[in-house]
Design a protein that fits this description.
Length: 345
Amino acid sequence: MYPLIRSLLFKLDPELAHEITLDLLSASHRLGLSRLFSEPVESEPVELMGLTFPNAVGLAAGLDKNAQAFAALGAMGFGFVEVGTVTPKGQSGNPKPRLFRLPEHEAIINRMGFNNKGVANMVTRIKQHDYQGVLGVNIGKNLTTSVEDAVQDYLYCLNQVIPYADYITANISSPNTPGLRSLQFGDSLTELIAPLVAAKTRFAEETGKHVPLAVKISPDMDTDEIKLVADSLHKLAVDAIIATNTTLSRDGVQGHFHAEEAGGVSGAPVKELSTKTIKILSDHLQGALPIIGVGGISSGLDAVEKLQAGASLVQLYSGLIYQGPDLIREAVLHTSGFLKEVSGR
Ligand SMILES: Cc1cc2nc3c(=O)[nH]c(=O)nc-3n(C[C@H](O)[C@H](O)[C@H](O)COP(=O)(O)O)c2cc1C
């Protein structure tokens, strides 16, 4: 069924196809039809960051930027859904076109630039839903906020969403907001993350609700940089590292008509970079911080490869566009099988 839907959607402009799909998903969910897109799979729950994930496979940030269809997406079989990136104020993002398919490479290039309706709109939408699954909210800064003042935007978003989120991700690795990636290093990292950890700790003390904080990193760091970031994040006592965001590298897409479009590459070409980053993190951290692996998962085996590299959970986005919802089931089956095997059950 999905090959037919895909050939229709791929005839449309990518962003239009994306909007239509989200609208249809949320409408079908309201009508109680979203379970038609997936069969429930028996799966191995994962305990991580004090949360119970029904399975190890999540939807990565960026597909549901405004928390418009997360309940429908959850009903398709994901063990968790991450919405956003959301910023304090709504913003339109970069000029269109800004989203490109590279089907020959099972890749996407995007330079969306955090287009979203703002955090107040997101909170309203989350409150309207009856979603029972694990919900992550990915937060960022407005384009008009300087990198030096970024902490104010992240803190604002964190404080707005924390009562409604199961976990929060600080996205400091999008290549499409100028200067954002510089927040991954040195004093900038500490000055951003320490206040966020303090805010979620204070919230836990006041309310008894522990909302873990994850930090999402880029795949474009060398080994020493990865180890430095890992040490800093461990010291700052965040709850997890999400590895990785999209890559600026054009390896694997060279020669394609769209290869030189500005933006981040996702899908198959980022797979090895992401897995390598996870492996370096895992070898270096030795279990001190959990890792959520994301980048180029387009089969159940790809998902297992991320777990083998040291991830405890995985996320996917581009693979869903190319493979359709069957990929969720396949990834859940394979990761569950792998987790059962390693736990000796
Ligand atoms: C169109 C598009 C938009 C994205 N937007 C975001 C975003 O807003 N925030 C974020 O943290 N990651 C964003 N991502 C990155 C994904 O969450 C993911 O880290 C990356 O695409 C690698 O996974 P994949 O190969 O499975 O797509 C986006 C990816 C795509 C393709």
